[in-house]
# Entry
Amino acid sequence: MTRTVLFHELGGPEVLRLEDAPVGEPGPGEVRIRVDAIGLNRAEVLFRSGHYIEPVRRFPARLGSEAAGVVEAVGEGVTGLRPGQAVSTVQTFSQNDYGVYAERAIVPAAAVLHRPEGVGPVEGAAVWMPYVTAYGALVEVGGMRPGDTVVLNAASSSVGLAAIRVADRIGAVPIAVTRTAAKREALLKEGAAEVVVGESEDVVERVLAATGGRGAEFVFDAVAGPGVTDLARIVAGDGTILVYGALSGEPTPYPMIGLGMPPVNMRTYTMLETTTRPERLRRAAAFVASGLRSGAFRPVVDRTFELDEIVEAHRYLESNAQIGKIVVTVAH
Ligand SMILES: NC(=O)c1ccc[n+]([C@@H]2O[C@H](COP(=O)([O-])OP(=O)(O)OC[C@H]3O[C@@H](n4cnc5c(N)ncnc54)[C@H](OP(=O)(O)O)[C@@H]3O)[C@@H](O)[C@H]2O)c1
# Structure
């Protein structure tokens, strides 16, 4: 048995319970890890509350895909991983099948990445989701090049912060958009070329001015909803809006249709497009590891909680007060 976060019904953070659950041995293609730290993601809030891209199929349900720990056991047919190795996990799987909010967890071997030397458990649970999401969208899918401009909506999110550094490493120009002035200085410190405060500044005007009227080659948007109509006005002629989140919770219009605007490319993106394709994941892991080695990339950890504080940790995630990742540590 191992202490595991389970929920027996959909709802707010209070439905999460820390209970003993069987963990067993890994099956073919699976690995059991001792979980030392867990990276929290919006996807878990959405899954817990019944608003994720897939519904909860059975109760009690597990949660979580991003963790760091040590391999304890490997199943049949698993190569390249052995007990004792320091690893991290990335999302390649459904939370209906696996969940890492636990002291020990079984995950598919395809979801396990070696943790580079010098990257501890907390950092190892905070780095992959943001950087692989940003790299996959901007570089693998978008083909971002030096000199391109990328506008990052909800730039203070963990993915937005990673996207600032990914853009910078490529030689592109990251413009950060945040709702209030509270996170402005932090975004400049993280490397944003400019910060636009959405509530008090005109995003369209600012981005067009910053790009000499050309517009941005990429808009990387975690918010979606009606705001994409404005974002469409700041995209360069052959640019693209990459929508990777739905923080607004509202339906998203397709901006070029029926609004008397020129055509705009808009595309959704999920990190599964990178993590479930072995070649893309190999390149992503190499890119992130290289950035970590050089010091160009770093995980931004806002705050840590302990496993028995999981309800408070989810409440804090939903408060939007954080800058970067919330990590839950697991004592053994
Ligand atoms: N497609 C993928 O594969 C993928 C992967 C990871 C995450 N995501 C998605 O990306 C989004 C961000 O995730 P995260 O974990 O990085 O977030 P996070 O670290 O929790 O950050 C969220 C930030 O976004 C801003 N925000 C929140 N609600 C907003 C709203 N309604 N309108 C505008 N801005 C809002 C807030 O910053 P300000 O107050 O400064 O504006 C908030 O601090 C989520 O929607 C998540 O589901 C997608």
Notes: The two ends are 14 Å apart (CA to CA).
